[in-house]
Amino acid sequence: MSYQTGFFSRPGASLARALIVTRRELRDTMRDWRVLAPIITLVIILPFILASILSALSPQLIKNLGQSTFHERLLPFTTLAIGFLPMSFCLVIALETFVGEKERNSLEALLSAPLTDFELFLGKYLAATLPTVLASIFGSLSFSFIFTLMGQPFPVSPDLLLIFLALNGVEALVMVAGAVLISTHTTSVRAANIMASFIILPMSICVQLEAVLLLNNLQAGLYLMLLGLVVILALLMRSGVKIFNREEIISREGDNVSFKGILRGFGYYFRRTPQEALAHQKTGQRWTIWRFYRRDIPQLLGLYKSAILVVAISIAGGILVCIWVAYWPVVRDFRDALNLGDRLTGTQNPICQSGTINSITIGGFQGVTWQGLFINNTVSVLLGSGLSLISLGVAGILLLIISTGPVGFILGFFFQLDLNPWPLLAGFILPHGIFELPAVIIGIAAALKISTSVIAPPENMNLGQSFQFAIVNYIKLLGLIVPLLLIAAIIEANITPAIGCWLTGGTI
Amino acid sequence: MASLDFLDAIPISDTSLPLIEADNLVKDFGEFRAVKGVSLKVEAGQILALLGHNGAGKTTTTRMLAAILTPTSGHAIIGGFDSVRQPLEVRKIIGHLTEQPGLYNRMRVLDYLQFFGELQSVPPKLLKERSEEMLKHFDLWDTRQLRMGEYSKGMRQKAALIRALIHEPKVLFLDEPTSAMDPFSAKIVRDAIEDLKRSHRAIILCTHNLAEAEQLADKIAIIRKGEIIIEGTAEELKEKLLGAPHYHVELNKPLREIPPSILALPQVKVLENLSNGFVYETPEPNTTNPAVLKWLVESGLGVVTLSQVPRSLESVYLKIAGEGVAPEANRDEVEQSLLKKSDKPRQAVKM
Questions:
Q1: Which of A184, A187, A203, A223 is the most exposed place for a label (fewest CB within 10 A)?
Q2: Which has more confidence, A352 or A87?
């Protein structure tokens, strides 16, 4: 609600209040030797040791690795790694700041103070990130300057140093944003530490990727990574701001899993229509197949229209990009190497009268049963959904683009060769595509909604409820997706080849 | 011990309306309804004690009143501000002593008070003066150099109470204010609460200490399973639950049997015949007691004392919580149960 999160009405006053919280937290953090000791070690002692070792061994290393590897790979990598090391206590501070306060029961007094949820979030977020980001910057810089003071060249170019500082800074922000999400859903530092592996693992993969890019001199990749991290940060922050509210924090009294409660929740969402569930109605229309297809499914399609639109636009965009890519010289060379032009233009009616294309196309249909197609498509949708779930929809959409992309290439080639592609599309894709494509789009969109359910729960729903609601909705939508895929499979196996050949003049 | 006279009294114009007014507050956590339609009203200079088992809904109710939780339905007006639409304004005028003191262990008490004072926008000079006065009043001034992690439970509780008072709130929610305190400290806090009441503040006191509730509260509400099942002054509750007041007559010589003329008095029910006196119950002590006394004197019986039998709030609470009403009873069942109980003595009086 705006009054809880509103910041922009009086940003100066809000920031001032947030900074009161930040100051207290920072003072508290700086009084903790468990935080201070590693900070000093990692930003002063370790850089000094590493700089000394590298400086002393530099003649030997240059001799063994070569001048460019030493200066362009090893030294920049060390600078990056030293900047990343302080991240190891970034989570400690963040979890202490957020869940630690809850565990020590000091949070409720703070919640009674005239602070908005956002001011509280901002104050704590700054307190958790400032020491880490500063330590990271200081670590990288101290290594660079100590190394230079030892009579060596500056270990990294200014532009690379800047991107390292930015990468490490954004990684710290991402980790703390992740820690906020974890903290909101746990009541003890112990439980939060266990869940922190969900942050540590992806971030360590991230660092490995950075190392690979750096060692292979792919600086552009580092910029792309930075961009990706900024997007993830934006999503996590949005989620954090939404979830970090008094209601959610106070309502969570324990970390115990109640399977009975979970099952009850699932049962409730299954029984109620989506609108009834969103209104937390205890009673509603009786569940019947008629109600399911008359109310639940249309309501869900309405509820998910934005997600469906996003997936559909992504596919259309993917096809357009593939048409455009088909014009790239390198792709045209590939087309020419395959002699596609001659194959497609060798006859009047290229698709079905050209022996090769004809045999490939029709041969593709021969021996394919509707059962096989149905299982294959259903598994694909489930796989795409699973990938969407763990990648905020990105992998699912990419998979869809990959499977629909060839249509774009074919269209591109047809346009280049001045051929009419519509008989091919209308004959070989449209008959089953009008059932299959919506099914796949709805499936991926529903999976996308599951992953976003934890980022932006609907109003009046906590995160757990939102997640359960999204899962139940996905399962309900399978009641539409599976029949559509079944119809599509039957058409694709039995009717599409006939229509295709009829439209293109070929034979099966 | 000096009173809390350094706290400004609430201007009398502000006391015309109830400072705390809750109307049919409901709070659901998922499918669990923690508070089921709580309505209450506390005026300036009044203390309402909220009694109930652990988990009865006291804390959730105060959290809704303190604008920490949003009610599922119903609304609360605190000092003229709506707790849902104007939560910041509400939090500016309330002082909330939470169930757990929840101090920052690495902080010193002066830093702690400064932190909360700044959040409440108390001017720095005033904050410094008030912190010193309060710490002295609550006997914590000499420990100001200690980290609060070194404080005893009672000291922690007092520090938390000072934190709740540092911005001179109009409305106070005090959850177990004297828990874990030694008798001396508890007395200081109780006196402070009475001072706060005198300075026209409205106070909700959640406590398990029934004697304290009886001593301090103007009104008592017993909450059970999220519902206020009974509310009134301590005397009203006693009368509702324990029947009419009981009086003990002590005579200067043994009494073999209760004289029939006493039994014939209207509105009197003799409950117990003691060796040198008796105990009776009457709903109309103003008229009955002089009549009883007169008859005894006229009969030549020497009256040593005629006194009301003390009845504690604890017996009222236990009647509801323990013996009389099943723990799972809802409001209707409790009311029926109370009606049955209060019917009995009245029938007896009529005979």
A1: A223
A2: A87
- Provide the residue ranges of all domains of chain B, joining segments of one domain with +: 12-232, 246-308, 312-350
The answer to whether A178 touches A198, Cβ cutoff 8 Å, is yes
Distance CA B65, CA B53 (A): 19
Cα separation, B63 vs A108, in Å, equals 9
Determine whether the interchain pair A113/B91 forms a contact, defined as Cβ–Cβ distance below 8 Å.
yes
Q: Where are the alpha helices (DSSP H) in B14-75?
A: 58-65
In whole angstroms, give the CA distance from residue B27 to residue B36.
7
Question: Closest Cα partner for A384 from A468, A474, A306, A299?
Answer: A474
pLDDT attached to residue B207: 86
- pLDDT tens per residue across span A356-387: 334 334 444 456 788 888 998 898 888 888 88
Of A75, A97, A98, A93, the closest CA to residue A133 belongs to A93
State whether residue B69 is helix, strand or coil.
Answer: coil
Q: Which CATH class, in words, describes the domain spanning B12-232? A: alpha beta
Closest chain A residue to B103 measured between Cα atoms?
Answer: A106
List the single residue in A28, A264, A265 with the smallest CB-CB distance to B106: A28
Q: Write down the ipTM of this complex.
A: 0.78
Q: How far apart are CA B174 and CA B117, in angstroms?
A: 18
Which residues from A are below 8 Å from B89, CB to CB?
A: 114
Task: Give me the sign of the Cα torsion angle A270, A276, A282, A284.
Answer: negative
Residue of A nearest to B85 (CA): A3
Other Cβ atoms within 10 Å of B270 Cβ, number: 16
**What count of CB pairs under 8 Å joins A to B?**
83
Tell me whether residues B28 and A280 touch, CB distance under 8 A.
yes
- Give me the residue from B87, B115, B160 closest to A24, CB to CB: B115
- A418-468: per-residue pLDDT in tens? 777 787 788 878 888 999 999 999 998 998 888 888 777 777 777 778 889
Question: Whole-angstrom Cα distance, residue A226 to residue A218?
Answer: 13
Q: What span, in angstroms and rounded, lies between the C-alpha atoms of A158 and A138?
A: 15
Domain segments of chain A as ranges: 2-250, 298-504
What pLDDT score does B2 carry? 54
Composition of chain A by helix, strand, coil, percent to 5: 80, 0, 20
Q: What is the pLDDT of residue A247?
A: 78
**Hunting for tokens 């090769």 — which residue is that?**
A356
Determine the Cα–Cα distance for residues B63 and B66; give it in Å rounded to an integer.
5
Tell me what percent of the residues of chain B surpass a pLDDT of 90. Answer: 39
Q: How far is the alpha carbon of B187 from chain A, nearest alpha carbon, in Å? A: 24
Tokens standing for A230? Answer: 């900024």
For residue B22, the model assigns a pLDDT of 94
Region of B169 (left: φ > 0; alpha: ψ -120 to 50; beta: rest) is: beta
A176-230: pLDDT as tens digits? 888 887 777 777 788 777 777 778 878 888 888 888 888 887 888 889 889 888 9
pLDDT at B239 > cutoff 60: yes
Paired tokens of B116: 């909360």
Question: Which one, of B63, B116, B60, lies nearest residue B92 by Cα?
Answer: B116
Residues of B in contact with A17 (CB under 8 A): 119
Banded model confidence at residue B271, pLDDT cuts 50, 70, 90: confident
- The amino acid that residue A224 corresponds to is L
Give the closest-approach CA distance of A265 to chain B in angstroms.
9
HSE of A61, CA atoms in CB hemisphere, 13 A: 14
Token digits of residue A166: 């930015």
Token readout for A55 is 């400086």
DSSP A99: I
Distance of CA B104 to the CA centre of its chain: 29
Closest CA to B204 of B219, B224, B214, B215: B219
Closest CA to A167 of A260, A259, A87: A87
Q: What are the C-alpha distances in Å from A13 to residues A20, A116, A129, A412, B125?
A: 11, 11, 21, 57, 20
